[in-house]
Write a structure and sequence with these properties.
By secondary structure, the protein is α+β, with helices and mostly antiparallel strands. It is built from 3 helices and 4 strands. It has 2 domains: about 1-50, Macrophage Migration Inhibitory Factor (2-Layer Sandwich); about 50-100, no CATH class. The chain has helices at about 15-35, 60-65, 80-95, and strands spanning about 5-10, 40-50, 55, 60. β3 and β4 form a beta hairpin. The two termini are about 30 Å apart.
């Protein structure tokens, strides 16, 4: 049984986006393993509490990821900001590729 556990910041994706995530991941597994995998594919979208995760050694919040608050600089030049921008770039890429993120 294929299984995907997607961790997203709480409140960053809405119900429609969660539905798209489940549908698209299920479709991907069906392409990889054949249609027989579709009926047994489990996709779990976990919302992580705000500030409960980080990138590059810095805790990130929804406000940082949405651009409502500046990222605190980590060791090195703006490591958290760069990590958040990189992550948001992936979200934007998904929207351009037909997803609804962003």
């Amino acid at each position: 049984m294929p299984f995907a556990n997607l961790k997203v910041p709480a409140g960053l994706v809405d119900e429609a986006q969660k539905h798209d995530l489940v549908t698209q991941v299920t479709d991907m597994y069906a392409r990889l393993f054949g249609e027989r995998a579709r009926a047994t594919t489990m996709v779990l979208v976990d919302e992580v509490v705000d500030g409960g995760w980080g990138i590059g050694g810095e805790v990130l919040t929804k406000a940082i990821l949405t651009g409502e608050a500046p990222a605190a600089p980590a060791v090195g030049p703006d490591a958290a900001s760069t990590a958040a921008e990189s992550w948001l770039g992936h979200v934007d890429d998904g929207a351009e590729a037909g997803g609804t993120a962003g």
